[in-house]
Amino acid sequence: MSGETRARIMDEALRQFAERGFAGTTISSIERGVGLAEGTGSFHRHFPSKRAVLDAVVERELARLREIRPEREPDPGRPLADRLAADLEFLREVRPLIEILIRERGAMPHLVRRVREVLVDGGLTGIAGDLGTGSGDPAADAAVLLCATVGYFLTSEFFGADPGGVDAGRYTRVLAELLSRDRR
């Protein structure tokens, strides 16, 4: 039961931190959201502080995301557009973590650094190994791919519509074509 309560606290904290930010979330609001009696010490039996639950949530989400998408293995047999579509879906899984980072990046640079190490730096290495064509500079191609895909995702999420009316399938197809062109 204790592990289940801890997981429920973390789920609720993730939701509230993503919606309200760290400062806008209280231990009492997390307790209420989980159904724990406020002020009874229930929260503190699992976490010493609000900061500790935030750190635990970030580490849990990073571990979960590594399971969803382990280090990217080169897969030349799978069309690049399909791999890009999977990247967009992966970003949907990461959305609460992205929201927390957007809100807390100035106040908690350690979180930004930790997520960057896992998702960006590690992701670029995997993407660069996955690209066999393009400009002849796989690291730069990977950075373009990452930034373009994250930009597409954030734009569609922020505005609630596909950028320029270009749906995800069309976006991934065109980006794959651009990255795959022979540029002699």
Could you give the order of the helices and strands?
HHHHHHH
Distance between the termini: 62 Å
Question: Strand fraction band?
Answer: under 5%
User: Which blocks of ≥5 consecutive residues have pLDDT under 50?
Assistant: none
Helical stretch tally: 7
Overall mean pLDDT stands at: 83
Measured on Cα atoms, how large is the radius of gyration? 19 Å
Question: How many beta strands in the DSSP annotation?
Answer: 0
Structural class: mainly alpha
Count of the domains: 2
Largest sheet: none
Shape: elongated
| Percentage of residues assigned to helices | 55-70%
Question: Could you characterize what this model shows?
Answer:
By secondary structure, this protein is an all-alpha fold. It folds into two domains: 1-57, Arc Repressor Mutant, subunit A; 69-184, no CATH class. It contains seven helices and no strands. It has helices at 2-20, 27-34, 50-68, 80-104, 109-130, 138-159, 168-180. Helix 1 (2-20) packs across helix 2, helix 1 crosses helix 3 (50-68) and helix 4 packs across helix 7. The chain starts with a helix and ends with a helix. The model has no long low-confidence stretch (mean pLDDT 83). Pfam families: TetR_N. Keywords: DNA-binding. Residues 28-47 bind DNA.
